[in-house]
Amino acid sequence: MASIILEYGLYLVILVALGIPLGGYIERVMAGEHTFLSRVCDPVENGITRVLKIDREEEMDWKQYLKSVLAFSVCGLVFLFLLLMTQGFLAGNPQGVKGMRWDLAFNTAVSFVTNTNWQAYSGESQLSDLTQMLGMTVQNFVSAGTGIAVLFALIRGFNKVKEKGLGSFWVDVTRVIVHVLLPLNLVLALALIGGGVVQNLKGGETVDLLEPIAVSADGNVMDNAVIDQNAGTVSVNGKTVAGATIVTQEFVPMGPGASQIAIKQTGTNGGGFMGVNSAHPLENPSSFTNSLEMLSILLIPVALCFSFGRAVKNKKQGIAIFCAMFICLCVALAALAVNEQLGTPELAQNGSVDLSWSAEQCGGNMEGKEARFGIVSSSTWAAFTTAASNGSVNAMHDSLTPLGGMVTMLLMQLGEVIFGGVGCGLYGMLAFAILTVFIAGLMVGRTPEFLGKKIEPYEMKWAVLVCLATPIAILAGSGIAMSIPGVVDSLTNSGAHGFSEILYAYSSCGGNNGSAFAGLAANTPFFNITLGMVMLFARFLPIAGILAISGNLVQKKRIAVTAGTLSTTNGTFVFLLILIVLLIGALSFFPALSLGPLAEFFSQMM
Amino acid sequence: MQVRIKKSGTWTRAIVFYLMLTMICGVIYPLVVTGLGQLLFKDQANGSIIEVNGKKYGSALLGQQYTDNAHMWGRIMNVDTHTYKNKEGKAVMYAAPSNLSPASDETAALVAQRVAKIKAADPDQKETAIPVDLVTCSGSGLDPGISVAAANYQVPRIAKAHHLSEAQVKTIITQCTSGKFLGIFGERTVNVLKVNLMLDGIL
User: Fold this and answer.
1) Chain centroid, CA B22 distance in Å
2) Which of A107, A303, A346, A445 is paired with A252 by a 20 to 30 Å CA distance?
């Protein structure tokens, strides 16, 4: 038991221990200061700005910043959409995959541009190596870079006094990618290859099976068949089965995996190289690679809390926001861990299956989990990936226990602000902080202010929109889906769990998360288009709102701190902030959750 | 300070910027990683394939389905023979997760079947509870490993089928067991393919 708690505890401690120095580094990079990597990275940055003819001192107002974000995202969207449709005719396609249907290509392109990485396709069978490199890997970098750039545009809104400019989007994205993401991922990708993750440019291999498999004429695997390989016949109970075939080989998928897997973890993208993501043994082969990939999920989101504190010259503010997120994460992780460790009576079979923990096995709910990760590393990953809007998985969330699955759903429904995506999680949380100071200000009759800037109706309106974008997108999307008759054909599970599959899909896309209750067969025109719209809405409405808030704050004068100023760095504020986040999330989603996971849980009790 | 605001060229810049980043992040970065990976970790970068005398006996990282009493059994596989074909156009095996809720009646029925099958293969152990990973489908459907408890549970059956002592089978299991990372993270697992290759005298 102690070893379980030690493992959970160490994951969290290492995460924070790595996040603090990285946070300082990112802040220095974004301020254009000299770092230990400057000698290598500066020439690359200079090369890019020279080609673009960018003056490093150039400033954009909030509308120009937003226009640049949108123009850049549209470029990515169009490029990726065309690449996905035409990949069958292009080079770098050793498996000979075909181009995608237009609705799937639309969904996938939107998904990667919005940093969601929802996958209605399976990577090893539907993407060419060229697409994985030019399409997926590139979007993983640039969508992460965009999120961090917008965050720093907001921070400048607080920092600058009576100005208009929020910095340059091009410079911000260049700095994030060149100084932070590329060096980090180069090292991580090599470590992952060392641990067994594939990285090559040849097509998939076939290898021989130790025991051949008999498949009947209608395509089903025959369990009790006797195979005579020399004669090529299959017999059951001494009778030869007509039309049966013998499968003697297994497929081993290959490709440029590690380079993409590294950035999908660190950039909170989460789109797997393989269909089953980091549960796949060639994407995440061992407990060594799992530790690296899992810590990478939250590394930058945690670091950015500390970057924020340094950037606003108020480290305590960064720590306060970090504490609010960290407390929520720990509570969610504990709830998930307990439920997965307990398992279900359906698995226990009145004691004929051993679900207990011992030195030789982890026990618990092992359906949908890999033996090498067990309960601890799978639960921790599930909490991390849904807290951050990462969405990669190392266990199938559809096979989580009812309450464990609900925790993952709720973490996404809270608006992806418990660390959330790189950049977007923190700017989302800052919108909640603005909401909190406003509500707290009303309660005690003080003028609401945050970081020395007065919060007025203009900021409030946009902050409310930012905070409500996710709940609106999720509830409207899943509501519409449930009213369409044919939708239930896509479900693997029936009843309350079937509803959960749909609610999870819209929660995942509305939170720009990307994980799935993968039993849902989501590659239909209806799901591809509606989920695509949800992703676009939930990504770009908050970006517009945040930039508008920042564009207004940057023009304001700084108010001196007085005895009347509400402290935003103490325990009371942290408590209030958590309360507001939970209040909005719980009120929005309690009815939906009680139809899905809660109904499943209670029907199991009866 | 006078704020200088750039007025035009957003679209041109967006396109040029995007193409430049595509070159850096989509061509140079993955090729550098591929080059270094092939140089430093050739075996791992190419799928950890077990090759003996020119025959490829599977990847050490991918599970296979075993039903023979003389072989160690792995996680439950949801076998797929429709998606992939080899160079000669013959179907090859792959697998997928179940995505079933562990609280569903369907899971309860499937697990009961699996319990019955395992007990029938080794009637002497009727009273022993079966480790949970032997009766559940994994996250990838291709899990190459099982827990040490699940491996030990099968020792009597395998020993009998191979006319080996239980100690000999256990020695093989120990050789194919990989530990936790730093002794703390993840779980100890037994690589089922390696155990079976050793039992068959191939490795």
Assistant:
1) 33
2) A107
How does DSSP classify residue A89? G
Residue B173 one-letter amino acid: I
Residue B99 CA to residue A278 CA, distance in Å, equals 15
Instruction: Tell me if chain A has a CB within 8 Å of the CB of B14.
Output: yes
ipTM, two decimals: 0.93
Q: Which two tokens stand for residue B3?
A: 């704020």
**Average pLDDT of chain B to the nearest whole number:** 91
Q: Which two tokens stand for residue A327?
A: 């407390």
CA-nearest residue to A211 within chain B is B66
- Tell me whether B5 touches chain A (CB under 8 Å): yes
- Note the pLDDT of residue A233: 84
Smallest Cβ distance to A211: which of B66, B86, B99? B66
Residue A244, min C-alpha distance to chain B (Å): 12
Backbone dihedral angles phi then psi of residue A141, each to the nearest 5 degrees: -70, -50
CA dihedral A408, A410, A414, A420 (to 10 degrees): 0
Between A56 and B99, the more confident residue is B99
Report the residue of chain B nearest A137, measured CA to CA: B26
Q: How confident is the model at residue A491 (pLDDT cuts 50, 70, 90)?
A: confident
Nearest to A325 by CA among A448, A459, A441, A415: A415
Chain centre to alpha carbon of residue A300: 12
DSSP letter at A492? S
pLDDT score recorded for residue A6: 93
CB atoms near residue A31 (< 10 Å): 12
Q: What is the pLDDT of residues A455-484, one digit of tens each?
A: 999 999 999 999 999 999 999 999 999 998
Q: Which residues contact A83 (CB under 8 A, 6 or more apart)?
A: A90, A130, A131, A134, A135
Q: Which tokens sit at A341? A: 């460790």
pLDDT of residue B3: 47
Name residues 160-179 of chain B within 8 A of A (Cβ). 178
Please give the helix or strand (H or E) that residue B189 lies within, else none: strand B189-191
Q: Tell me if A112 sits within 8 A of A87, measured CB to CB.
A: no
Contact B57, B51 (CB under 8 A): yes
Tell me whether strands B145-147 and B130-131 are parallel, antiparallel or unpaired.
unpaired
Residue A363: name the closest of A374, A373, A378 by CA.
Answer: A374
Chain B segment 107-136 residues within 8 A of A by beta carbon are 107-108, 111-112, 115, 119, 129-133, 135-136
Look at residues A401, A453, A487 and name the one whose alpha carbon lies nearest to residue A561: A453
Decide if A199 and B148 are in contact by the 8 Å CB cutoff. Answer: no
> Could you tell me where the DSSP H helices lie in B9-78?
10-23, 29-40, 42-45
Q: Do B3 and A59 touch (CB under 8 A)?
A: yes
Q: What's the CA gap between A256 and A258, in Å, rounded?
A: 6
Q: What average pLDDT does range A121-148 have in this prediction?
A: 93
Which amino acid is it at A474? Answer: I
pLDDT tens for A438-456 read 998 888 888 889 998 999 9
| pLDDT tens digit sequence for B174-196 | 999 999 999 889 999 999 999 99
Which pairing describes strands A353-354 and B130-131: parallel, antiparallel, or unpaired?
Answer: parallel
Closest residue in A to B114 (Cα–Cα): A353
For residue range A529-560, list pLDDT tens digits in order.
999 999 999 999 999 999 999 999 999 999 88
- The letter for the amino acid at A5 is I
Contact B33 A254 (CB under 8 A): no
Prediction pTM value = 0.94
Contact partners, residue A119, CB within 8 Å, separation at least 6: A108, A111, A271, A272, A275, A277, A514, A516
Q: What is the mean pLDDT of residues B23-45?
A: 95
Is any Cβ of chain A less than 8 angstroms from the Cβ of B27?
Answer: yes
Mean pLDDT value across residues A17-39: 94
